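During the no-cost extension, the postdoctoral fellow (Dr. R.K.) reprocessed legacy sequence entries with the updated structure-token encoder. One reprocessed record is reproduced below for audit purposes.
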Amino acid sequence: MIPGANAAPPGEPQPKIQVIDPLYSFGTALEGEMVKHTFKFKNVGKGRLVIRGVRTSCGCTAATPTKSNLAPGEVGEVAVGFDTRFQKGHQVRTITLFTNDPANPQAAMTLQGDIKQQVAASPSEVNFGKVKRGTELTQAVVLNDLTGHKGFSVGPISNSNPAIKVVQLAAKDHQPAVTLKVSLLKTMPIGPFDDTIKVVTNRVPVQVDVFGTVEGDLNVDPLQVSFGIVQPGQGAVRILRLTNAGSKPIKLLGITSSSVSVTASAEPVRPGKEFRITVLLNRSTPDGQVRGALTIKTDDPTQQTLDVPFYGIVGQFKT
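Re-encoded structure tokens follow.
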């Protein structure tokens, strides 16, 4: 779709769009409600007005305009719906009509107002941070009913990661709050993790994101290699440090690279406990993006490989 398509040739009668009341303030709505409004627009020009399309911002939907080809003086409508689930606070949504009006090819309408939460999760997300492999941690999440009505109830509760366990604690009678016990189990594998707890309530559904990183005995610092922007023919060198926090010494069995332009070698700083890894971007690397990963192989039975991504640009940066 090309804004302004089907525009009348210069010198001929031109269309002109006028949005009647382009700003709609709905005041305050409860989270979970569908806010609906119909915007009206008119062709106040002398040529035919063509509506080529409609675009809305996130969370907003718009129906097809009642008229997409308007003679001078004609009025059209477009119905808009705003889904307020998982929204809170002041919200602004924009709806854009693409037209053949040469002076206003993109006519904007705005929907705004405040969303009052029915149920608030505290905290709103669970961040376990960096956790040692084999550690079990628990955090509490309190779901507060903000409606002021009686009879708040929760269930069912679901999440997808089997190493995240969610249990609803027994609620006190007539209390407008429910507590969830969120546990990170010892079975969570090494590496970053994320999950979403989905809670059904008799008010609105609630989602709580859970995330963190499980670390093993072997750790690489930094976690990724950035060469930045490198001039042709210069190459680049970066240094990594691999440390072993375990009780047993380890051996490095080799390092491979997914790109022929990047190589790496290791030397022990403290044999079996700490290694210095030199990463080299070759001088002969052609212009363009360099992206891939190093794979470090060890004799540690729980971390036989460690992957370290790398990236960079050789030559001038082009968007």
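The first strand starts at residue 17 and ends at 20. Confidence is low (pLDDT under 50) at residues 1-5. The remaining legacy entries will be reprocessed before the final report is submitted.
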